[in-house]
Amino acid sequence: MSLRSFAGAVLLIASGIVPALSAEAPRGANAPFDVAAAQATAPNFVGITNWFNSPPLDIASLRGKVVLVDFWTYGCVNCVNTLPHVTALYRKYKDRGLVVVGVHTPEFPFERSAGNVKAALTRHGITYPVAQDNDSKTWNAYRNQYWPAQYIVDQNGKIVFQHAGEGQYEEIERTVARLLGANS
Questions:
Q1: 156, 63 in Cβ contact below 8 A?
Q2: Alpha-carbon distance 8 to 92, whole Å?
Q3: What are 165-179's pLDDT values in tens digits?
Q4: Per DSSP, which regions of the chain are E strands?
Q5: CA 25 to chain centre
Q6: What span, in angstroms and rounded, lies between the C-alpha atoms of 159 and 114?
Q7: N or C, which end of the chain has less CB nearby within 10 Å?
C-alpha cells in the first residue's frame, strides 16, 4: 500500500467507514465501503495512454458481461499480492462472461513507462486487458483513492461491489459467480 493509500486507509479506519477493520457495525446502507458506489453506473475508461492485451475497450460495449475493474500499479506490493487472485479469477470465469480490466495507474514516475508495464504483465502472467492510466483520468472518474481497488460491474453497467486493499477474495469470487449464474 502506498503512503497516499495508507493515509487514506487510516482515515477510513479511524472514521469507522471500514467496519471490517474497525470492528464497528455498519451504520445504515451507505456505511460499508464495499457498497459505497453500489448501483452507480460505471464510468468509462478515459484518458488511457495505452491498452495492453486488447484493443481499446469502453464500458458501454461491455454491457451483458460482468466486469472486474482492478486498479493497480506494478510498484505496489499490495497490488502485486492481489494479482494471483485476479488472474486466477479471470482464468476461471473468462469463458463464462467475466471481463477483467486492469487499470494501471502509476504512483511513481518510473511506473509511467509502457515498457515497464509490459514487462510487469509478462512477469505476472497477466493476459487480460490492461489500460495504462498515466494521467489518472479513469482513476478520477471512479473516484478511486487506493491501490489496489476492485470494482465489480454487473451486466447492466452498474457497480455492485467495491473493495480496496488486499483480501475479500472469496467474496469477490462469490459476487462474480452469482452475477454469472455460475457455481464457483
A1: yes
A2: 32
A3: 999 999 999 999 999
A4: 40-41, 50-52, 66-72, 98-104, 130-132, 149-153, 158-164
A5: 25
A6: 28
A7: C
